[in-house]
Prior knowledge:
Blueprint: E1 2-8, H1 16-24, E2 29-32, E3 41-45, E4 48-52, E5 65-68, E6 73-74, H2 76-88, E7 97-99, E8 104-105, H3 108-117, H4 133-141, H5 154-176, H6 183-197, H7 204-213, E9 217-221, H8 247-252, E10 261-267, E11 270-272, H9 285-293, E12 306-308, E13 310-311, H10 312-322, E14 326-330, E15 340-349, E16 352-354, E17 368-375, H11 392-405, E18 408-413, E19 421-423
Parallel strand pairs: 1-9, 1-10, 2-5, 2-9, 5-7, 6-8, 10-14, 13-15, 14-18
Antiparallel strand pairs: 3-4, 11-12, 15-16, 15-17, 18-19
Helix pairs in contact: 3-4
Inosinic acid is lined by residues 11-13, 38-40, 126-129, 131, 133-134, 223-224, 228, 237, 239-240, 273-274.
Amino acid sequence: xxxxxxxxxxxxxxxxxxxxxxxxxxxxxxxxxxxxxxxxxxxxxxxxxxxxxxxxxxxxxxxxxxxxxxxxxxxxxxxxxxxxxxxxxxxxxxxxxxxxxxxxxxxxxxxxxxxxxxxxxxxxxxxxxxxxxxxxxxxxxxxxxxxxxxxxxxxxxxxxxxxxxxxxxxxxxxxxxxxxxxxxxxxxxxxxxxxxxxxxxxxxxxxxxxxxxxxxxxxxxxxxxxxxxxxxxxxxxxxxxxxxxxxxxxxxxxxxxxxxxxxxxxxxxxxxxxxxxxxxxxxxxxxxxxxxxxxxxxxxxxxxxxxxxxxxxxxxxxxxxxxxxxxxxxxxxxxxxxxxxxxxxxxxxxxxxxxxxxxxxxxxxxxxxxxxxxxxxxxxxxxxxxxxxxxxxxxxxxxxxxxxxxxxxxxxxxxxxxxxxxxx
Length: 424
Ligand code: IMP
């Protein structure tokens, strides 16, 4: 029996979609525990590309059960569109996808509030995806949110929507200057989507508990990355959920004692979308090369991703905060054309060396990376499927990252396709 958690070690976009799909082959249940349609998990199978935002990437494997836990925020429109796209591609979703009735609903008004919030002059711009994530988690914490089970209890829904709209409209009218909404508008929207969502709503915790009791294999799929965690990331430049491995327990209702495998996923360099500190960012032609070779554009928003060298301070921190046992290293082939490769091993802050991430993450805004430089392999490894195919210099790079991060690198990804993978 395995209950594994796959967690991003950087600022998201580490390539979780492909790896979840790969690992799903040996899994029975794949479960999303946080976030919403802000995620964009890209999977390429025999040249065909799928981008999943909410549905776990395990859906692409036949007969796998996929669940969306109470810790996720669900945009019904985005979910229904995604299901339709999957069905159109010949992937059977009915009977294999189950969403917790406790998952909160992202209302259209919260997408407007998200965008308006992020353009306020008095507040630091976060560069959110505009998908309504932050406002929906805020409503949940404020106890004015709409969990999916309200959809099927008209009386409770109407009173909850009235309370929510009262608060929302004050903010919209007096602070944000956007369009206010009415109780009827919101209830009508929910009544329209509810019957189509209903077949997918069910007891996800029981499915997971039964799977644990009968010794099945479960993979908990994290979205975003460690550095975007609301408690452990680069606050305030974070998303609004617990992206770290611990989030799998609260976001799904799995007891901590049942989690027995934690897989970190890290890119061979670093990227970040949106605002916030990024010590190893490259604003030169090497950064442009990484962006081009790595096709570093957001799968959800299309925004160009900021690119930079591998940051081992971040990787070590991710190993510690998540309890990572093994690492998947992705996009190694993106470095194929480089003569020299740098790895940040520590920071210099106000003349002092800093080996570990501090809790005062504002320090990262002026931290100078201390680099170790290595020779690039400067040859094509893209598509390699066996460790022996790699040049010595690529093996040396992998060994160095492994040593400095503090966990074994067990899988190396050398291209977007399912097959471009090395198992060590
Ligand atoms: P939000 O999650 O839309 O509230 O955005 C908060 C921050 O997280 C922004 O910097 C986003 O760019 C970032 N973010 C959210 N989802 C992802 C993702 O899936 N990959 C990378 N960054 C993300």
